Task: inverse folding
């Protein structure tokens, strides 16, 4: 696993000694960021990387000129690897780590908290199989509308068999892609 473009191009990322992770391949990451460039992202964006793992997507965004990334991860062992990757990339001042269950990240409105332009949502596949109203993923996506800027883009990674609903709260699907065994659904905040 490595950063594939931008200021830290080619930097190898530390990985945990576990089989539980599902790293994004370089080819898929390159394809995803090519799609994001259509929306002028991540340049200058404030980003949230939910279920961040070792930070592959958030660090890629920082390497490509995102302004700031909030990494949300629950596992303390994975967080220690994430910290090493942030330090190695020299992005300590452009990032923060929140140890939390990312499904509870949306929370209640607070005028003093960060608003995001781009959010990566990459839950474990088992936790993303149910996308209907009342599910954990639905609750997270519904609540993200209060945490993102107008026209913000939310990228949701799931198993390719999963089809998200057309809308979650203020978020509507604008693009869907499938690569191998995974699917990426891109939603955008709308006022409709």
Result:
């Amino acid at each position: 696993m490595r950063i594939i473009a931008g200021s830290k191009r080619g930097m190898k990322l530390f990985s945990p000694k576990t089989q539980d992770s599902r790293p994004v391949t370089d080819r898929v990451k390159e394809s995803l960021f090519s799609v994001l460039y259509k929306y002028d992202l991540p340049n200058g964006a404030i980003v949230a990387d939910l279920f961040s793992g070792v930070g592959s997507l958030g660090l890629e965004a920082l390497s490509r000129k995102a302004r700031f990334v909030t990494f949300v991860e629950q596992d303390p062992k994975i967080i220690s690897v994430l910290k090493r990757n942030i330090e190695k990339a020299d992005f300590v001042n452009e990032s923060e780590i929140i140890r939390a269950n990312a499904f509870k990240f949306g929370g209640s409105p607070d005028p003093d908290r960060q608003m995001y332009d781009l959010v990566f949502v990459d839950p474990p596949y088992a936790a993303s199989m149910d996308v209907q109203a009342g599910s954990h993923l639905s609750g997270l996506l519904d609540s993200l509308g209060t945490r993102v800027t107008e026209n913000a883009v939310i990228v949701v990674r799931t198993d390719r068999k999963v089809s998200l609903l057309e809308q979650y709260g203020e978020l509507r699907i604008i693009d869907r892609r499938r690569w191998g065994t995974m699917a990426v659904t891109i939603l955008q905040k709308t006022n409709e």
Observations:
- The longest helix spans residues 76-89.
- Residues 162 and 184 are 10 Å apart (CA to CA).
